[in-house]
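Key result, reporting period 2: structure in, sequence out.
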């Protein structure tokens, strides 16, 4: 268990640093209000998690440790959107259309409301 925790932690460390660097690059080089940095890491993270799980399902090219490092650690540190996108894909793949709709809508709307609540709680304190 400790080995798995360390593997995930190292992946998360690297993913978080890369997220910061990519976001910072866009902040400094793109004069636009659109959140290009966050958008970019979310899409790249979704592609990476798709590649990792795709390779894991088709072959033994990725060991369970590398899958933990890349999917849970790196993608988790780089973006949590990648995990949401992968979960949504699994629901789509399983033809769970109602759950897919509820999951994606609720994740976005409740996430947005949670950010709103958190910001307002801070205003009150």
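The corresponding designed sequence is given below.
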């Amino acid at each position: 268990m400790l080995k798995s925790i360390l593997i995930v932690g190292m992946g998360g460390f690297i993913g978080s640093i890369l997220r910061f660097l990519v976001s910072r690059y866009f902040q400094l080089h793109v004069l636009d209000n659109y959140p290009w940095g966050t958008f970019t890491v979310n899409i790249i993270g979704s592609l990476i998690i798709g590649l990792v799980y795709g390779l894991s399902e088709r072959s033994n090219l990725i060991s369970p440790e590398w899958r933990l490092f890349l999917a849970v650690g790196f993608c988790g540190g780089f973006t949590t959107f990648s995990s949401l996108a992968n979960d949504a894909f699994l629901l789509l793949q399983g033809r769970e259309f109602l759950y897919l709709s509820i999951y994606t809508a609720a994740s976005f709307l409740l996430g947005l409301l949670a950010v709103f609540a958190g910001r307002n709680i801070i205003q009150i304190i």
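The helical segments are 2-29, 36-58, 64-78, 81-93, 97-124. The two ends are 39 Å apart (CA to CA). This case is discussed further under Risks and Mitigation.
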